[in-house]
Amino acid sequence: MRTSTKHRTTKETDIEISLTLEGGAVDVKSGSGFFDHMLTLFASHGGFGLTVKNVGDFDVDFHHSVEDIGIVLGEAFAEALQDKRGINRYGQFLLPMDEALVLVALDLSGRSFLAYDVPLRASRLTDEGDEQNPKVGYFDCELAEEFFLAFTRAANVTLHIKELSGKNTHHILEAVFKGFGRAMKEACTITGTTLPSTKGVL
Hints:
The protein is an alpha+beta fold and 202 residues long. The protein has 4 helices and 10 strands. The longest helix is centred in the C-terminal third of the chain and has 20 residues, at 169-188. The model is unreliable at 123-127 (pLDDT under 50).
């Protein structure tokens, strides 16, 4: 079983994440109902066992929590993948969610890069939300990009996410996280016994 448990404490967040690539229970308590939903979708569609516990400075905003969860989750994947021997390495998925269509493609390359092309419109606004800063419930939708940026840096993953169509913000982000889970599942799957690199290292 490829597993990892990570605990990271700063003055802004206290996060514990347990990850099992071969599957298991999913229990996410990030501090945001919408982000819990997104991470649960990611883990469920990826077939990963995932528990997330976070205590953050929610009185400031949710930025630090999202970013730090991305860091810790990326570190957990990097550890659980071990030396990456036998993995498929590449993963891609084209995911429809009603009117939304999102492409996710990634490489467990050992090189950090994020291309995030996901324009959003606010489909449901709070008192603080507007068209320039859309929110779903009380989740700042721009934080999704911060999560993926933190994840790619910590996991050393090359990740491309592109919205091909969509109008409803919830649907678009749901397609993003589901597609991310499906692509990660494909990339993490053991398909051989050798390291999938002509360089001899990932």
